[in-house]
Design brief:
Blueprint: H1 10-20, E1 30-37, E2 46-52, E3 57-62, E4 65-67, E5 85-96, H2 103-109, E6 113-118, E7 121-127, E8 133-140, H3 146-149, H4 152-155, H5 159-167, H6 178-189, E9 197-203, E10 216-218, H7 221-224, H8 233-253, H9 259-288, H10 295-302
This protein binds flavin-adenine dinucleotide.
Amino acid sequence: MGGQRPEIARNDLTALFQSSIPSEQIKWNHKLLSVSRTPGVSSGRFKLSFLVGEGEETEEVADILIGADGAWSKTRLLLTNTKPHFSTVSCITLTIPHVSSHPALAAMIGQGSFYASGEKKAVIAQRESLDSARIYAMLSSFDETYLTTSGLEQAAKDPQEIKKMLLGSEGLFSSWGEGIKDLLTAGCDAGTEFEVTAKPLYMLPVGFQWEHVDGVTIIGDAAHLMTPFAGEGVNCGMLDALELSRCLVDGFANGVEVVDGKLRAFEQNMWQRMTGVAQETWDNLEVIFAEDAPDGFVKVMESHGPRPEEY
Ligand SMILES: Cc1cc2nc3c(=O)[nH]c(=O)nc-3n(C[C@H](O)[C@H](O)[C@H](O)COP(=O)(O)OP(=O)(O)OC[C@H]3O[C@@H](n4cnc5c(N)ncnc54)[C@H](O)[C@@H]3O)c2cc1C
């Protein structure tokens, strides 16, 4: 794709955080079970219940609560009844651990992402850290239970079974190009080493907002879960974190009573910024799985700049 879009692998990002946050401020192995408001309590407006490891439960209180707890956010339940809905696309994820040992596949993927789509299906490949590549086999269907009813969910537990369902004589991708089949083959063959997953993709409504609740907000997928078809989820989550941190630093510098106003302003700004991204993501999903695919998506890509071979 054109332009210089910075990418960072999840492990590198985690290492970066750990190198700058005092270790005692990070509580590993704490699963948030529920969050509730504690009216009338002098300190701590929110009560958080955690499961620690496999065993005990513990509680914490907080004046300001920031939920960065992903698609199925528990924090979001304080703000809205809206839940993510099925996007119409289901995704089988494969991994090629050492992609440079497959030079033809490495060249096909390039340094960024590779997309192929048609027949309401898509194969997307993406470079990851440590010389690996992720391969996504995407399938469009209005049936949220498609992966279960088709047997793909069960097959994903056995690399040879999923390979048969994707590439066997009646396989979902058996009539696709050799390069794409090689990508899927390499991913299935590594399935004994790297887990193959089969999951429906969910999303929040485009333009999703909520009534502000004092002292709490959500960021990242918790606030704007999208499908990956614009590749913007992480970028947007990181920008949320940056903008919110500025609001909080500014708010606390001017007295805790102004923090709520800053949170409101942050949310307004995030909603405005996210509506276009969420719409673009949905539009991309529609063209990738359209009857005439990949023509529409080729046009979308061309609108971003020249084809790679024209650089
Ligand atoms: C198949 C696929 C491909 C994608 N590809 C891209 C891409 O190429 N580029 C891109 O920008 N985005 C991509 N995305 C989207 C991207 O993964 C998300 O937007 C991003 O991970 C959101 O970050 P987040 O921190 O908000 O949520 P998450 O990454 O989901 O992190 C949430 C964190 O909260 C923790 N958590 C959740 N619930 C609890 C709980 N109850 N207690 C304690 N902890 C909890 C989780 O363990 C996790 O660590 C893709 C998504 C999918 C599904």
